[in-house]
Amino acid sequence: TEEEEEEEENVAAQEKQLELLIRKKAELEAKLRSVRSTTSQVELHCEDLKQGIKQHQSQRQTQFSLPPNDTDTQDVEMMMMMKDNDDDDDENMEKATKQITDETKITETEISKLQNMSEWYNSIREVMEELSDLKTISVEHAPPPSSSSASSDQKEEEEELVVQLKLLDVHILRIGLGPTATTDKKNSSPFRVMNASLVTSSILTDAMFKYDSDNDDDDNATTTTTPTNENKNPNSTKKSPQEKATVSLTIPPLDDLVHQSSTYLKPPHDIQFVIRESMARIRSFISRVVELGILRTRYLTQIQSISSSSISSSPPLDQEVVCTLNAQITVVLRLTPDCPTLPNGVYVDQIVGVGGWSRKDLEEMKDVVNGKGCFGPVSLMEELVREIERREANVPRTPTLPLRR
Questions:
Q1: What is the mean pLDDT of residues 253-262?
Q2: pTM of this prediction?
Q3: Residue 141, beta-bridge partner list
Q4: Packing angle of the helix pair 269-298, 255-264 (nearest 10 deg)
């Protein structure tokens, strides 16, 4: 019947559902066994970790006498949960450490290069200072003014920096710098030259320098000098002619250089001008005092002094030197401010001769010698002596009277 068929269908459906439930039960039981197995493994691992932590605590307590920390055992589960994250963090840390190490190596390489460049620059600077005879001694703030009641105009003229330079390994130049009067953006230096002076003595003598008075190799070359401070034999009381101070010159003040630099030049060209011209002036006076010392050892010489205002005057005054020769000729030499550094720095101003010398011969010798373009008085006198020797044979001699028998 229909009812029996429906019951059979229901029974069949229930049997199928029962089979599905049985299968699902078997799967769940298998999964439960797997979970239990995993749990037991985790528990064993945790026990191992606990044992390791306890051993570590006991070792730490033994070595450092520290009490055991019970909280370490409570953090095991958290450590297990963060294990994967820690692995990622370790990997990122390794990458960051490697990057930092590489950057450190690059930085160390750059530092090494900069140190080598600095050493090279310092060595080159020392060589340039030695070759240029210019060394920086100090750069300091200027001392405060002594008078506290100075006016505002005077305060503007006060120096702020003091620079001391060693010139030619002997002389010390002091330069006072003050603020610039105008605020020019194109001006790279905020200071200008206010004053300049020599700290060391400005008096030069031929005894300060060693020279060869018999050196005639180059007539137009300036005499090479070497500073000296003592004799070779300090126990000897006898001095050679060049060790006696026979000629002395005073280097004039440098106010004219400061005035010219402040009038025609802007910073920093003004300080360059003052330093360069100061060195040139010192070199010129050293060469001149040596030239005059050699001149005095060879000829009967009278040297006129140079006034302190002659160099700064406009136009600068010449120095007068009178020399008398054995050929009965006396000459008056004029040494220009450029003597003996430039050609034509010295010339014959007047020449007088007796004992048969005609005025024509004297003027011709004067023109010939002045046309040589000599640097210093020594080379000019050598040219004059050669010209005298060439013409001396044609000079009529004074007749001698016959002797009485």
A1: 91
A2: 0.58
A3: 161
A4: 150
